Amino acid sequence: MSVTNAERRAHRAATREARSGAGPTVAGVEPGANPGATAKFGLFGEVLTIGLMMAVVALGVVTLPIAVAAGIRHLRRFVAAEDSRAQLFWDDVRAGILPSLAVGVPAALLAAVLTIDVVLAGSGALPGGEAIAVVGWAGLLALAVTVLLAAGEWSPSRGWVAAVRAVPGVVRADVAGAAYIAAAAIFTGVVTWALAPLFIAGIGCAALAVVAVPARRRRGENRAG
């Protein structure tokens, strides 16, 4: 009897491991996706680690797009239980940092203009200040979402032009997903405003959101099929 119970416990444990995607295949059990995401504490630690690395790269401000893109690619490798050495992150940064300036410089200038508008609107120096402030905040949010989505589409082989051009299609294909990315961008802004060092956690979470949102859509499509 004890042997039977032990066998059942072993089979249940093997089934859990197989479904998580981290263990060996068990007959009749479909392996789970994203095995690297099954260890929740490990994933949280990786988000903080990659957030710190992204923050270092983003110190140049105009280098924020490549920092986010390289971080997203790193987290995709991690959750897929692929090779996720830190060296691969720096390889992506080196491969894309110069081309990314074509995105980073205009984005930084536009963000500066919108921020100035918001500040001036709040000071009462501009007529219709409340409306201008709303437009400014909306513009900053749209810019942040665009940068995040473009970074999610970037790869060294694809390049930044194709990544930016893909953003409208990504939004049309998953409007709810774009709203989730906007929420991640707002979260990053709020925690950074509250305490600047929290930018590390915020940007890491935003990168993870870009990885997780399309996976959510694919799971829904698989269930519908």
TrEMBL record:
- Which residue ranges does UniProt annotate as crossing the membrane? 50-72, 93-119, 131-151, 163-187, 193-213
This protein's UniProt keywords: Membrane, Transmembrane, Transmembrane helix
Region named Disordered = 1-31
**What domain of life?**
Bacteria
What is the protein name given in its UniProt record?
DUF624 domain-containing protein
